[in-house]
Amino acid sequence: MPLPAPAPAEVPPPLRVDRSGAERDDDGLLDRACADATTRVLPVRRDAAPVRAGRLALVEVGGLAAASVPVHEWAFLGRGADGAAVLLAVLADDAPEDLVPDAEWAALRAAGGDLPASEAEVFTNAVALAGWLRDAPFCPACGSRTETRHAGWSRHCPACGREHFPRTDPAVIVLVQSAESEDWILLGANAAWGGDRYSCFAGFAEAGESLEDAVRREVGEESGVRLDDIEYRGSQAWPYPRSLMLGFRARVVADAEARADGEEIVEVRWFDREEIGTALRGEGPVQLPGPASIARRLIDDWFRGLA
Ligand SMILES: [Zn+2]
After folding, report:
1. pTM for the full model?
2. Which pLDDT score is estimated for 93?
3. Which of 59, 86, 108, 159 is the most exposed place for a label (fewest CB within 10 A)?
4. What spacing in Å lies between the alpha carbon of 167 and ligand 1's midpoint?
């Protein structure tokens, strides 16, 4: 049964959520929030949440219960600017499409770039936590079924007593600059993408590896170049399924070393500032990463000359 339709209203201000992490120690937090009429809920189904008029469409906690939608797991996302609790409800994959009236289920990777930044942050947070709650119910040490604790932010194993927390896999993503000109960058075309789509080089940090070594190794493997001047630029959580993308800018030792690995990367190419500008405007044949991605931000920052 769908929830009752909301009254027509102006687009609300963007949702901002303070994680209020200290509150998670309170064992009664979720029960009290579920009984509080001011609590709002972000339902998440796989990597999607309801979106209406360019905003996350949160629902009232009572409405979700009345709609008889089974909730796999609850978690406390934090508190909104008005102090009301914001909960995550992890729904089954087959939760009804029309659960939230006038809203569309949108995947984070598709809709995240169109939402206000504070809402994209809440959405990312919710999808990451939901993925862990859904996919990691068993203790990795002894295989027993675990119980959630800390308002959905940890799992306790009743058999061996271990505590488990959501995991994050660090991955590096690198904008590679020419040694010869400030106006050239090296991008690669991935075998999986096809066509004229190019992006920065990226890959996971391996066990025991520093981020700087991961940058040198991944870029070296994919494009053949050695790197100098590795500089950290910023990060982006990317819960597909649980990556933390760490963005870097680096300069090659010698431009002529560039060559594709022929497996993961089918082509590497030097682009000048004018070509990148054309592609950023969506003109010309070359496609760049989407606006929600840190790859796009790395390229955009370079193009705009940001130090
Ligand atoms: Zn265990």
Report:
1. 0.88
2. 87
3. 159
4. 16
